[in-house]
Amino acid sequence: MENNELEVLKKALEREKSARKQAELILEQKSRNLLLISRELKLANQELTKLLNEKSTQLSGVFKNINDAYVVFNLSGDILEMNNNAKELFNHYSDSTLNIKKLVHKKDLEYSNQFFKQLEETGSFTNFTSRIVTSTKSTKWVQINASLIYSHSKKILGAQGIVRDISKIKKLELQKENILKELENSNNQLQEYAHIVSHDLKSPLRSLHALCSWIKEDNIDSFNETTLQNFNLIENTLENMENLISNVLEYSSAGYKIDEYEQVDLNKLLLNLKRTLFIPEHIKVNIQENLPTIKAEKTKIQQIFQNLISNSIKFIDKENGLIEICCNEKKYHYEFSISDNGIGVDKQYHNKIFNIFQSLNRNDDSTGVGLSIVKKIVNLYEGEIWLDSKLGKGTTFYFTIKK
Amino acid sequence: MEKTLRILLVEDNLIEIMKMKRTISLLKLNHTINEAKNGEDALEFLKDRSKIPDIILLDLNMPKINGIEFLKIIKANDDLKHIPTIILTTSSNQKDILECYKTGMSGYVLKPLKYEDYVKKIETVLSYWSINELNKV
Q: Residues in domain Response regulatory (chain B) (predicted)?
């Protein structure tokens, strides 16, 4: 009995021992895992710190290398921090405190106050352009974009701004403005000049005409046929001369662009033209329906159509004349066409006919200015003009007007 | 009944003056023509209140005081601004027309090339102003 009990106890003890051993083994395994995990964690942490450091060095690099001046200032305008570009921009190399509001040029002060007020009220301002006076008293044009900096608790700490030196751009802008003004002036002068010249040239023609008709009148009984004929020739020549002067003036005015464009309903315009132009009975004018309304100067657009239609009328030799006006809408422009069944234009003259005073058929009502005016106006609207023609069959003029 | 007008022609061109005179005699009109060859002369002429004309025919292109300046001067003068002033010119310059219109013109006539056309235009202008009851004002 005793032996038996001992045996049982021994076995129990052995079981316990092996169980503990197993537990110890599991424990060991677990703690090894734990160690590994904590090591991994440590590594991740290190990496994060490294990353963080890297980022902030990158950021400070950005501040250093940014092409524009960067400043941090408090709400009273004192600059707390600035990068090298800012120092260069403000010509400020000492440690004394600069005040951004005080840098602003006297003439722009009132205007700048508005912007700083806006900064406080809305949290930012963009593209504030003004003159500043740097520490070395030179004046520069700058453009500032600024925004407020807040703390975690949403308290306003100050503001940061990017200051861009736009002196060069501003200088170019001013130059451009001046050049434009000069151009406008000389354009006006030219216009004025054309008027004066045409006036001064026409006056003597008028006088000559009056003198001729008086001589004729006063000597109606004593002049013979030939002399009278010659006097008529003088008068005709004077008329031609006057026409030429008028046309030169018209041509020089055609290139004069005004900025006031209006909506021009081409349906109305062409209907009106059809009514007012002298169209012989044997010529039919067909106008396409639903023409567009374009933004342009009405008189100039009218002149294009008027000159082209008159041109077609002039050169129609058929018994039943036909003029057709169409419009083709393209993506960026309108393409108009005016076709006729007239005498046509030989290919070799297709470019020449747009030159001033180039009239292929010399007759009294053609001074060769009409088409050159059309071309000038079309070019003014950044369009093109060309033609398609068959001798004896007819001609189609095409032109485009930018939308 | 049409009445005779006292006309002041402000014109520096000798032949233009001859044209006006010849036109009036050709049309057998009894209007009186006084001529002034520039703005200064015209202003001098107008100083004599007894000679105040019924209408002024004014050329725009003149030396010294030009037509528009002359128009401005008389339209600013209380004694003279009532006189209808008709512009006779070659210039169809939009700017000039607008300026004259603003200042207060009574007509803008373009001088045509042909003398016959000129006679027709002047006849129309003068007959219009002859039927106006100017003297009673």
A: 6-126
pTM (2 d.p.): 0.54
**Domain A69-165, CATH:** 3.30.450.20
If one counts the domains in chain B, the total is 1
Least confident of A293-307, A351-365, B96-110: A351-365
ipTM: 0.79
- Structure token pair of residue A226: 């030939």
Q: Answer yes or no: are the C-beta atoms of A309 and A273 closer than 8 Å.
A: yes
Which of B115, B116, B120, B122 to substitute to test the interface with A, most A CBs within 10 Å?
B115
Q: Is A104 helix (H, G, I), strand (E, B) or coil?
A: strand
Q: How is chain A split into domains, by residue range?
A: 21-65, 69-165, 172-254, 262-402
- Contact state of B113 with A206 under an 8 Å Cβ cutoff: yes
Give the structural domain span for B28: 6-131
Pick the CATH number of A262-402 from 3.40.50.970, 3.30.565.10, 3.40.50.620, 3.30.470.20: 3.30.565.10
> B137 in a domain, yes or no?
no
Write the DSSP string, A107-173.
GGHHHHHHHHHHHHHHSEEEEEEEEEE-TTS-EEEEEEEEEEEE-TT--EEEEEEEEEE-HHHHHHH
* C-alpha atoms less than 13 angstroms from C-alpha of A281 in its C-beta half-sphere: 0
What average pLDDT does the segment A134-159 reach? 84
* pLDDT for A343 beyond 50: yes
- Whether B26 is covered by a domain: the verdict is yes
Cβ of A210 and B61 within 8 Å?
no
Nearest-neighbour CA in chain B from A380: distance (Å) = 21
Question: CA angle, A18 as apex, A14 and A24 as ends, to 5°?
Answer: 145
